[in-house]
Amino acid sequence: MNPSRHPRRRRGSVAVEFTLVAPVMAMLGLALLDVVDFLRIALRLERTAGEVANVVAQYEALRESEFATLFDFAGRIASPYRVTDTDGAVVLSGLANSGNGPVVLWQRRIGSPGYASAFGLEGRPATIPPRSADLVIASGQGAVVAEVFYAREPWILSGRFLTTASFSRLQSFALQRPRMVSILRITGP
Predict the structure, then answer these.
(1) Residue 181: what are its φ and ψ, rounded to 5°?
(2) Which backbone phi and psi does 12 adopt, to 5 degrees?
(3) Which of these, 15, 34, 49, 111, is most buried using a 10 Å CB contact count?
(4) Running DSSP on this structure, what letter comes out for residue 108?
(5) Which string of DSSP letters, residue by residue, matches 45-79?
(6) Are 150 and 43 in contact (CB under 8 A)?
(7) Average of pLDDT values for 23-35?
(8) Could you count the other beta carbons within 10 Å of the beta carbon of residue 38?
(9) Is the whole model's pTM more than 0.85, yes or no?
(10) pLDDT in tens, 96-147
(11) What percent of the chain has pLDDT over 70?
């Protein structure tokens, strides 16, 4: 029997095939949208870290009172993602090497305390993350680091398949050499 002679049978098999394939295609489509959302947020965090590090590196002298402005600037760039609130954190650090290896001279943060700086804590030796192993802070040199963290919730359907921490806890950092050496010290208000 030729299937072209019985169009009703052919339409019925197409409907059955569509019913079987449609949920899989919908799930793949939603997972793809979630990956696109992940990439969009990751790029926004990268831009935020780069812009903030660039601005901090341009200061001639950094005052304690100016950190509020810098954190506000970071929040505006990262908007609508609340990196300066409970969803994330922004950590600014000044690193310098005075002859005994790089040290975190100062560090200021805003947002959730659940995010640790990849570069270490204030007053302690600086840790250079593996993904920036080419960074060398020679004796007498310094660097300004801006780190931006954000916790995102994967969508319900893709959350079952993409559950790794790197997919839900995003982070980005940027390093800049300061224009003025005095930036590595923070003055009063």
Answers:
(1) -65, -25
(2) -65, -40
(3) 49
(4) E
(5) HHHHHHHHHHHHHH-SSEEGGGHHHHHHHHHHHHT
(6) no
(7) 81
(8) 18
(9) no
(10) 888 888 999 999 999 999 999 999 999 999 988 877 767 788 888 889 999 9
(11) 83
User: Over the range 149-187, which residues count as b (16 or more CB within 10 Å of their CB) and which as e?
Assistant: bbbbebeebbeeebeeeebeebbbbbbbebeeeebbebe
Report the residue count for the chain.
Answer: 189
- Alpha-carbon distances of 161 from 21, 26, 30, 56, rounded to whole Å: 19, 14, 12, 39
Query: Strands, E, within 49-164: which ranges?
Result: 62-63, 88-97, 102-111, 142-151
Tokens of residue 132, six digits: 């920036």
Structure-token pair, residue 71: 């954190």
End-to-end CA distance of the chain: 90
Q: Which two tokens stand for residue 131?
A: 């993904």
